[in-house]
Design brief:
By secondary structure, the protein is α/β, with parallel strands linked by helices. It has helices spanning 13-24, 31-41, 44-55, 61-72, 90-102, 119-125, 165-179, 181-188, 201-215; strands spanning 2-6, 28-30, 81-84, 109-114, 127-130, 136-138, 157-158, 192-196. It binds adenosine-5'-diphosphate and adenosine monophosphate (AMP). Adenosine-5'-diphosphate is lined by residues 7, 9-15, 123, 126-127, 136-138, 141-142, 200-201, 204.
Length: 216
Amino acid sequence: MDLILLGPPGAGKGTQAKMLVDRYGIPQISTGDILRAAVREGTPMGIKAKEYMDAGDLVPDEVVVGIVQERLQQEDCADGFILDGFPRTVAQADALEDSLKESGRGIDAVISLDVDIEALVGRLTGRRTCKDCGAGYHVKFDPPKTDLICDKCGGELIQRQDDQESTIRERLDVYRRQTAPLVDYYSQKGILFRVDGMAPIDSVQSEIVQIVKGLT
Ligand code: ADP
Ligand code: AMP
């Protein structure tokens, strides 16, 4: 089961992907997480990517395409994967299709999380992530039991550097210009499924599960 979760920053892709990982046992591939790890480790790629990420811009296609091609070859992707935050441009989508074709695979479904763009500023400024295990929370919509402490591992919850209002506006603009065209792109291929991303987290998950059931 090869899935893509599509939607603007803050639509809930990471939240839903993690729930799908628990349910189906296939990996979440988040290019944002992979890039943030490279930034933390100070690798040459991370140093280059950081400038784009801090500005709210997209990291160049060839960098992210390379990351995903390498990741998809790993053994844990053999039975499927959930792409979260990739592709973000038509060039990335074309490259993904080409490399999957080479291994006789193709995307089964693209799940578009439809959200009200204006609500995303509140979602992103309230987002908190566990520094140790990466679990996601929201101060209002999905709070931890104890302030700033991860329910799952006890790690510290931190705020992403790019989740400040000025950068958020730029990221949403980049989404409108470069990523939103992928909705039509996948719709024309007949593999787009739309979900109401403004519904509560568990309802969004149920809708996605229904879609996945329809695939098998
Ligand atoms: P994305 O991966 O698409 O950027 P996230 O999954 O990180 O988005 O979600 C952004 C923030 O919004 C997080 O703080 C998350 O807890 C919260 N969130 C996710 N889905 C919902 C929802 N359906 N309703 C309210 N808040 C949500
Ligand atoms: P995310 O965690 O998905 O919100 O991504 C955080 C940042 O990482 C983005 O604002 C981009 O700078 C970069 N990034 C993540 N995925 C991609 C991608 N597919 N293409 C280009 N840049 C990306």
